Amino acid sequence: MITTCTPEPYCRVLSGVAGLGLPPVSVGDVSKRILVGRKLRSSQLGETLLPKRIALPVFASDALSSVAYAPDEVFIMLAVAGASTYVWSWKIGLAVAVVMLTVVASYRQTVHAYPSGGGDYEVATKNLGRTAGITVASALLVDYVLTVAVSISSAAQYAAGAYNPLVGHEATVAACAVVALTAANLRGVRESGAFFATPTYLFMVSIMGMCAYGLVRMFSGSLPDAESAHLEIDPAPGWEGPLSQVALMFLLARAFSSGCAALTGVEAISNGVPAFRKPKSQNAATTLLLLGLIAVTMMMSVIVLAKEMSIRYVDPHELDRLRTAAGDALPAGYEQHPVIAQIAAGVFDNFSPGFYFVLAVTGVILVLAANTAFNGFPVLGSILAHDGLAPRSLGSRGDRLAYSNGIVFLAAMSIALIVVFDAETTKLIQLYIVGVFVSFNLSQLGMIRHWTRALQGESDPSARRRMVRSRAINTFGLCLTAVVLVIVLVTKFLAGAWITILAMGFFFLVMKAISRHYARVETELAADEQDSVLPTRVHAVVLVSKLHKPTLRALAFAKATRPNVLEGICVSVDSERTNQLLKEWDERRLDVPLKVLYSPYREVVRPIVEYTQAIRKASPRGVVAVYIPEYVVGRWWEQLLHNQTALRLKGRLLFSPGVMVISVPFQLRSSAIALEREEREEGRVHAGDLRRGRVDTNGSTWRKDDE
Amino acid sequence: MITTCTPEPYCRVLSGVAGLGLPPVSVGDVSKRILVGRKLRSSQLGETLLPKRIALPVFASDALSSVAYAPDEVFIMLAVAGASTYVWSWKIGLAVAVVMLTVVASYRQTVHAYPSGGGDYEVATKNLGRTAGITVASALLVDYVLTVAVSISSAAQYAAGAYNPLVGHEATVAACAVVALTAANLRGVRESGAFFATPTYLFMVSIMGMCAYGLVRMFSGSLPDAESAHLEIDPAPGWEGPLSQVALMFLLARAFSSGCAALTGVEAISNGVPAFRKPKSQNAATTLLLLGLIAVTMMMSVIVLAKEMSIRYVDPHELDRLRTAAGDALPAGYEQHPVIAQIAAGVFDNFSPGFYFVLAVTGVILVLAANTAFNGFPVLGSILAHDGLAPRSLGSRGDRLAYSNGIVFLAAMSIALIVVFDAETTKLIQLYIVGVFVSFNLSQLGMIRHWTRALQGESDPSARRRMVRSRAINTFGLCLTAVVLVIVLVTKFLAGAWITILAMGFFFLVMKAISRHYARVETELAADEQDSVLPTRVHAVVLVSKLHKPTLRALAFAKATRPNVLEGICVSVDSERTNQLLKEWDERRLDVPLKVLYSPYREVVRPIVEYTQAIRKASPRGVVAVYIPEYVVGRWWEQLLHNQTALRLKGRLLFSPGVMVISVPFQLRSSAIALEREEREEGRVHAGDLRRGRVDTNGSTWRKDDE
């Protein structure tokens, strides 16, 4: 017999709580509130789907923000052999654009084939098996950390560019920004469409506007040189003199692999398909294409303009390789500004608000990109939990502890990276894209196998044709991303990628261990026929310390379950009190026997455990039910004053087979405080809700929309 | 109907566990073991009573050890006005001796009147009321901290005296010693008679032997001068020139109140009467008298010898007040050794092993004195818990957490004092004796009232005569200790006693608050007539996530309790898994309906809470029984992987009235590890067991001995 029922809409329950007005707040609560701010409520929690115009900014900030640092890294790498190699810059940009568009085309296949939002992890697991899935998951976990570190470090550089006193303190600024972001996410950031749409569209408009204006000035011949155009670049030690063919190839490969940082975040849409409006896959694919085109346009425009404005850009640690045209050393205190800042300064040489506006929105979009990692991390955690690769409790919404731990872990790791690498984007980027390309490769491989399988079961010629075409796209994508992965590994392994691979290995082993543990437990727990045998009798004992309301309630509850035997037990540590209790017990004429366990050394737990074991021994097919009256109090220090012995006893009784422990709670008046605290916690907005399609975009209405 | 039963002797149960051989040990366990060492077992735990010859050293180390620093403080205070005031030293010693013997006589009355071992706290509470009792308890708590700080600081000075490289690092040495003592006590120190008897008797023998030999040499005229005898002492600033009568009085009062440090620890025996052999009170009184006589003899001998050997002793921070007889400054690097060290060096001028032996046993006895605080603290805690002034769980033996917290708290406070006062006994002593004399005074006052009350109900003339005599002794004691308390307050308030009073006030307020809280709860919980009303029906729900052994066991247990309604509930966060579960449920032909709660946002806790509330609403006189299958695992990280949702749910359901939560544990194989860990913990020896009469003295046999 199976029945189903749906709980009432949550919003009604929650608004009832909100109606109570300002609740009393405990001390611990106040101090926490000062730390993380007032918490947001998810009273309008509902399932609302995103139109394309909103979905684009929600998922694009990570991918688009890389235009703020990827071109810089290309120029830095090329500058190793002096400014002469800058002629290659737009060709490298073109190569990155080709890879980008190929990857976009590949993911368009993925969103059609896997509209459930599992992304690369799902593709790899379903088609290549669990090990491949775990590898992708490790890569993604590492990448979330690096997204935060790289984006925030880059944002700190822009901040220093706009406000000179921050120069030299980028690491501190970046660490503080991560802390602020962590606090905001612990507190519960309301992600809404507007939250992403405004800054992302502003960023697109300002960068594309700047580039368009710059290109107009270029063609009209009025494009000024960049502030660094008058400088010469000394080649790095070992790169002096004419380059050999091999050395040039290596240099270009390094520059190209740094430029590939522009590809990070492209995969985000494939994880967010369920949040799109119908037709989900179609809309997601369109948005993905749009994202790719915008990203490529922005990147190419920036590189071309930088080249045309004769920007000179070197590793910020090797500023001494810059010289004036006359061959003199640089003036003391020379600041090298990011490429976009130099372009903006040049293009808007007669309109300084434009310059500051470009820098401001770039900084904002970088912070937003970092925030996507904070949102994506718990989402990935819940998917992994669902598959038994992470603690299962992460799988259900609202496990505050696990969820907060995840956010704090992400923040701690990225702050560690920022501090160790002194917030230098150039160094962090060496660690960055390995993970992305590992998952690109496995995902493409999985897709190829997916189409091959699908072809086996498909006879409709037009469907087959589509599948063959999709497989061709993914095959091309695999070839290209495999080449890029090899280039990245060769050029970056010693420069830092080994750290990423080590970290991936660590996550891989942890997930393997968790998965093995769950599998072992499952085997141990598998039910067989004899497991349904009923216990022959129930021997109920009610713990009695005093004869007060909680005890009487526990007795009444125990009686209501009509056990075969029911008795009160009392551990005597003080004969005077015990006699008093026995007298009251008699006076009340409770028709339940009270057994006294003498405990000469004032132990409480052990006599009870031994007593239950003795009962169980006398009747091994029976079950012992231990009723514990429990006080429910509201303040943390009250908790210290009550229930400690009950807690210890409960923990100890867990080890006795055939014993069940029944908590009969008694709510003291102060418990109202804790109840309200609990309900406030439950009603929180969680980071990542939006991209799981769970928070509405306008914050006032909500509706359900199923596939 | 009342039945009683006594659990089997514990030692049998424990030896069964020990028989399992070397158990597997978790990582956390290993790291803790490295920190605090292998734990001791209390397998021979039994009630064994102490003969006088063992009881004396067990309770005397604190009181006797003060001879190691009290004379020094007297000389330091007198030296403020130069060496000429040293003529007063033996008169001050005599005054301290009079107070000491008076206090001893008073406590002999207490041990007869209150043989239960409650000591000053019990006397004050019973005769003067709760507030007086709490005041005494605060004083005792503060004194335990100071006993550790003063004894260990003094021990560090002796260590520096014996081994010069330690000079200047006394605070570090002392802090390390406290840490070592804490570790030993956390690990469980086996207190046995021998543990105390050997060093304490060695100390008595060596100090009394040294003094006797010194006095013999004095009378034979061969007593050499002390190493500092050739020095002159400049009076402290402001004390130059001839002293006024008032100034002299103040000086002597200060020296006297410092000398009264010798009285600390005298009250220990009054807390330990239950540990004595019968006749308990008589034996305790005799031991107390013996203790007083030995302490007075040792102190007077030391003072007289020091005076005769012309010791010059100033505050170690004012060594520049010492000059050679020629008026020159001291040679650089002059070390001022403690009084006993100087005497030993002089008396044993031709026998250096004697010198080192005296220093060594003095150091050991000081550490032992500090250890008594670690033993007394939990004992006091359990008495206070019993009276509702401390968390109740402290009252039962074996609350490891509370017990360890107490020891760590004591250690942290005393280390703080040691660091702040740089391990200078002279400064710490200013804080010390306020607390002791506060409890002396309240205790004497209580005793007077006790005898007055007793006289009202007594008609036997000889008994009345004894009581009147006792009251006279306590009255004299009160007068004397009141005068001393005033002197101490006047001379030491600004020098540090205010800190003690502040700390006492803090403890007082905390205990008051705890007591108020318990009283409030008691009122709230008081049972009335309608509390015994039985619930009309039991609606049982069993939480089902999968159909495995734990679920089947929970279902079987739930069925055995024969509720009015029984159903499984399952929160559906994944329709595929839910369908799978429903299918299995049908296949198994379980005759229990399975209800599915849909949770569109993957929340687990809330739908269940709301469902139980709905049941309760439909039948407000009924009770809802929620059965939760629980996994019992053995390793900490396994705990993270399981039960998190169950834990959260249980916490949340506590707030729902009329809901009882039943944990049905399922022991996985790894739970054996945790069970053994639990049992090892339970079998530990606890500090303070000996002075509660709970550990036998020879460690092999045990027997019971009731009053």
Number of domains of chain A: 2
- SS field, number of helical segments of chain A: 23
Biggest chain-to-chain interface with counts = A-B, 120 and 118 residues
Instruction: Estimate the strand proportion of chain A.
Output: 5-15%
Helicity level of chain A: 55-70%
Low-confidence stretches of chain A: 1-47, 695-707
Identify the CATH architecture of the largest domain in chain A: Up-down Bundle
**Span between N and C termini of chain A?**
29 Å
Text of the CATH class of the largest domain in chain A: Mainly Alpha
**Could you give me the name of the CATH homologous superfamily of the largest domain in chain A?**
Amino acid/polyamine transporter I
Q: Radius of gyration of chain A in whole Å, from Cα?
A: 32 Å
CATH topology of the largest domain in chain A: Amino acid/polyamine transporter I
Strand neighbour order, sheet with most strands of chain A: 6-5-4-7-8
The count of strands of chain A amounts to: 8
Kindly report the average pLDDT value of chain A: 82
What would you call the shape of chain A? elongated
Main pleated sheet of chain A:
5 strands, parallel
Oligomer description: homodimer
**How would you classify the helix and strand content of chain A by structural class?**
alpha/beta
Membrane topology (chains A, B): Multi-pass membrane protein
Keywords (chains A, B): Membrane, Transmembrane, Transmembrane helix
InterPro entries (chains A, B): AA/rel_permease1, APC_K+_Transporter
Pfam families (chains A, B): AA_permease_2
